[in-house]
Amino acid sequence: MAFDATVGGTAATSYLTVADADERATADIGPEADGWLKAATPIKEAALQRATRELDGYLRPGGYAYSEGVQRLLFPRFDDLDAVGVLVLPFGILQATYHQAAYVIANHRVIDAANARRAQAGGPATDPDTSYAVSEDGGPSILSPRAIYYLAAYQRTTGGATISSVVVGTGYSYPRAGYPSELLP
C-alpha cells in the first residue's frame, strides 16, 4: 500500500507525514521518541500507516466525515476547518497518530507476540522488559496510553456512564451555514 498523508484523500493511508512525525519526535523525549528518530523512513511510514489503521479501528467519532463516502479515513470530520476555511486534521488526532506510531516502533514485536500467544491460549499474556499497556480484558493493549489520552475527545461510546463525541468534545456547533438540514444530528 503506497504511503499517502493527503488530508481527506481518497487514497490516504496516514494522518501524518514522516516529516510531521519527525518534528513531534524532536519535541518529545523518552525511549519511544528516541526509537522513532533512529528508525529508517520505510519503517516510519509503515508505523504511521499501522497507527492510523489502529486509531480508525478504535474510534467511533460523532458528526459527519468531511467527504462522506469519498475520504478513506475517519478524519477530517465536517467541521475540521481552520479560521479561513482550509481543511485540517484535529490536533489530538495528529498527536495520537505520532504517539501510536512511536509506540508501534518501540513495542511491535512484543505486542504482536503477546497477541499471538493470547489468541492461542485464550488468556492474558505478559512479557518482561516491555512498555505496553494492559487493556480492560487483562491483555496487552495495541494502543499507546499517550494516544488514548489524545483520543478521549474524539471517542463516542454507546451506553454506559461515559458519553462523549467529537460534536461536543471539540466545540463543534450545529447548524453551520451550508450544512444540509436533513443531516443535522
Mean pLDDT: 76
Which structural category fits the helices and strands? mainly alpha
> What is the end-to-end distance?
35 Å
| Helix proportion range | 40-55%
User: Which range does the strand content fall in?
Assistant: under 5%
Which word captures the global form?
globular
The total domain count is 1
Largest sheet: none
Radius of gyration: 17 Å
> Can you write the helix and strand succession as a string?
HHHHHH
SS summary, helix count: 6
- Low-confidence regions: 129-140, 159-185
The count of β-strands is 0
Oligomer: single chain
Task: Describe the protein's architecture and organization.
This protein is mostly helical. The chain has one domain (18-183). The protein is built from 6 helices and no strands. It starts with 17 loop residues before the first helix and ends in a 16-residue tail after the last helix.
What are the key terms here?
globular, disordered C terminus, single chain, mainly alpha, 185 residues
Short structural summary:
The protein is mostly helical. It has helices at 18-26, 31-38, 41-58, 91-121, 145-151, 166-169. The protein is globular and about 45 Å long.
